[in-house]
Write a structure and sequence with these properties.
Helices cover about 55% and strands about 0% of the residues. By secondary structure, it is mainly alpha-helical. The chain folds into two domains: about 35 residues; about 80 residues, no CATH class. Keywords: Signal.
């Protein structure tokens, strides 16, 4: 019985090492099959785990990714035939990450993203600079 356990452990270590060393050959095919499986089968809760951004980037793709709402409507851009590339890719990734991690809707995630950007650039919540030398005449 002991020899069987040691043999299986040794075989598992050898197989794992060989798979790791040759991962450049088999990993792309495995990733393609998993991506195809994700496209055809819907797993429960997968909406919060992973969603693919379209590499081309257009307003239609942004709407499909959930980056539109009644207050930030992209349907007008699509209806007018806007040929621009869509929203900024970096901002899209950040907003989608916020939506997934905090489980927020698009408008709330966009607000959190903008507050983070304001904080990074030294702008207060009221929209005024936090620079102590700033003088305002109102």
């Amino acid at each position: 019985m002991g020899y069987l356990l040691y043999s299986l452990t040794f075989l598992t270590l050898i197989t794992g090492t060989l798979l790791y060393l040759n991962r450049a050959r088999w990993l792309p095919a495995f990733q393609d099959s998993v991506a195809h499986l994700q496209d055809t089968v819907r797993f429960p809760g997968s909406d919060y785990l992973y969603s693919r951004l379209a590499p081309a980037g257009s307003f239609e793709d942004d709407i499909e990714a959930g980056l539109s709402s009644s207050t930030f409507d992209l349907a007008g851009n699509v209806a007018d035939g806007d040929s621009r590339a869509g929203l900024d890719d970096g901002a899209k990734r950040e907003i989608l990450n916020i939506m997934k991690k905090r489980r927020l809707k698009f408008d709330e995630a966009r607000k959190v993203y903008m507050e983070q950007r304001f904080r990074e650039n030294g702008i207060g919540a009221d929209g005024r600079p936090r620079d102590p030398k700033f003088v305002s005449f109102s």
